[in-house]
Amino acid sequence: MQSSEAVGWSVMGTGTITTEHMVAAIRSAGQEPLWVVSRNRQYAAHFSQDMQIPGVALDARRALEDPRVGFAYVSAVRDRRRHYILAAAAQRKHVLCDGPIAGSSRLAASLVETCRTAGITLALHQPFRTLSPHQTMRRLLLEGEIGTLQSLLIARGAPFQPPPNRHADEAVDRGNALFEASIDSIDLARFLTGQEPVAVSALSASPAQGETDQQSYALGLSGGAVLQSYESFTTAEFESIVMLAGDRGTLIAHGTLSGKGAGTLVRRLNGRNELIPVRERDPHVTTIEAFLALPRKPATWMSLGEDNVIALRAAEAIRAARNKRPVSIGTVDAKTSAGGSHP
After folding, report:
1. What tens digit of pLDDT does each residue of 178-208 get?
2. CA–CA dist 192, 99 (Å, integer)
3. What's the Rg (C-alpha) of the chain?
4. Do the Cβ atoms of 152 and 243 come closer than 8 Å?
5. Which CA distances in Å does 109 have to 4, 103, 201, 278?
6. Is the dihedral of CA 213, 193, 316, 262 positive or negative?
7. Alpha helix ranges (H) inside 73-203
8. Domains of the chain
9. Nearest to 287 by CA among 98, 119, 61, 160
């Protein structure tokens, strides 16, 4: 990555509380946010004042042309991410972006290719990859602690809640909430297992057309394992589960997908449960440090643009499979349900 004196950042978007945490993480890494970019001048000015960032711009080019700026953090709403990524690529600035980078795999692939041609890094801020329980699960699986992986289970449910925003009038895209949830689950599954999605089946509790608040799907993975996932905004909140099941044991992470803490990790071997201690780290600082290390270190856990394209393609396949008419089992006659007809 850039090794010159250009250690400044341009922050694109001001809407989420997460952006504030990322600004603090940038400073913790010894670098400096120099510009705030937003379509709304008032929002940009307020964010600049709150976070003590000197530059304010409505035009991304003004910030990115600053020779002190080497990096862009894109936290704008999804439909604006393309604009900022392209602007950064035009100025040869490395990009860290909230996911997904686009609303379709086709557009995402185009952005990845543009960044590759420009010679810049396009990486994603994917909090699930950063959590210590998930990184520990991945390491223990690679070390053979549970034998050969057979299946992966991801389950989470809670009433729909928009992400914490700085502005009460920020639009909330509930229609795509489950779509983006499946992108995150698939990305986490690929990270944990090192396997790729190859086949899909899906079911939702909605009509065949349109979005839904509840879905279940299964993915066949390239290494022979099966991912089973359940995501819902219709249930009362329950503790999320991420489970890797092998032929010798199981790793189970509880409460890691709620955004309310690191959660816990349990290893089950020989019929006994063992709580595995994990070291909590600031996920925002961890993300910034890993991003700045690219490409000096291989991207062993960080999500790159190419990873997001794969996750988007799989999520699109899930949505397509979910919209197919399910096979009806029909009803069972009460007279024959016990195993035979009666006179």
Report:
1. 999 999 999 999 999 999 999 999 987 655 4
2. 18
3. 22
4. yes
5. 29, 11, 24, 35
6. positive
7. 78-90, 105-118, 127-130, 132-142, 177-193
8. 8-125 (3.40.50.720), 128-282+303-322 (3.30.360.10)
9. 98
